[in-house]
Amino acid sequence: MKYSCFVLPLPRDKGYEFIILQFAGHEVHFTSLVNYQVRLKGYLYPSSY
C-alpha cells in the first residue's frame, strides 16, 4: 500500500482533535495525534527501559 497512514480532523467544541489512522492488511490502528507525538519523542517508553 502506497499510503498507509492518514490524519483525520475531528471537530470538537473548541477546534479539532486529530486522529492518526494506520492500515495494516485487514486491520486499522488509530490513536490521537498527541499520543502519537509523545510516543515518538520517547516519553512513554524511554530508552533506559
UniProtKB/TrEMBL annotation:
Sorted UniProt keywords: Mitochondrion, Transit peptide
Source taxon at top rank: Eukaryota
Biological-process GO terms, alphabetical: mitochondrial proton-transporting ATP synthase complex assembly
Pfam families listed in its UniProt record: ATP11
GO cellular component, one term: mitochondrion
Similarity-based family: Belongs to the ATP11 family.
Subcellular location(s) of the protein: Mitochondrion
Major localization class: mitochondrion
Record's protein name: ATP synthase mitochondrial F1 complex assembly factor 1
